[in-house]
Amino acid sequence: MNTVPVEYGLVLAGILFTLGLVSVLTRRNIIFMLISVEIMLNASGLAFIVAGARWMQPDGQVMFIFILTMAAAEVSVGLALILQIYHQLKTLDSDAANKMKG
Amino acid sequence: MITTFYIASVIAIISTIMVITRYNMIHALLYLVVSFLSLSVVFFILGAPFAAVLEVIVYAGAIVVLIIFVIMMLNIREESVEEEKRWLPPRAWIGPSVLSLILLAELVYVLTFVDAAPSGVKVVNARAVGLSLYGPYIIGVELSGLLLMAGIVGAYHLGRQKKKVVHRFLEKAEE
Description:
The complex is a heterodimer. Chain A has helices spanning 6-26, 30-55, 59-89. Chain A is mostly helical. In chain A, α2 runs antiparallel to α3 (59-89). By secondary structure, chain B is mostly helical. Helices cover 82% and strands 0% of the residues of chain B. Chain B is built from 7 helices and no strands. Chain B has helices at residues 2-21, 25-45, 49-74, 81-87, 90-113, 126-133, 138-174. Chain B is flat and about 65 Å long. The N and C termini of chain B lie far apart (73 Å). At the A-B interface, α1, α2 and α3 of A face α1, α2, α3, α6 and α7 of B.
């Protein structure tokens, strides 16, 4: 038997997602937090691909393309927000942005 | 075939761990590219070549380049050749290079020694994905278009607003 078992693919997706989650919880640099969100989105896309390969249907790849679209939109808006925060606070520390204006 | 899956997934986990433990953003991005490439190999092994291509083009290409652009914009004041030399010593890029060389060896192996489709894996090609995308999922495609439009407008708005605000404050301060 030459195929990849579904469990291994899902375990890989789970490990990658957990790594991204740990990173987004522990790092305080906002660019690193954005990268970690990308890792988590990528891991969820991997889970969809594994499921699509298990049932041999194109739906998994369709959902992956939707996740890809959302990641692209998210990273553009997130980077614009990072630029704004850096210009206003002169730092990339996310804890510095803990006060609202007014 | 399953051995290549194991190697690629181990590389993905190692490079992701390296991403989240780096302190230098450029080094982290190097490892992030390796992570995306290894996941692309995993997609290919799982019988999803179109998703593998999109992973390389959009994730490892567009998104990482976008993040690098922003990092370069942020560090624009402290630009110097010495600093750049200090950022990229040989031991910084030798790790990602070794990992990507393993991936390249895997790719060459798959392309030369394995026939068109690995036995037992049904390849879902781009044609099936396109038919499904523009058939039952057409509403999702339209919503994705709306989302991308909102992303463009939002990024433009957020990236532009700062100058206006400073200008108004300066005007008020001068008055």
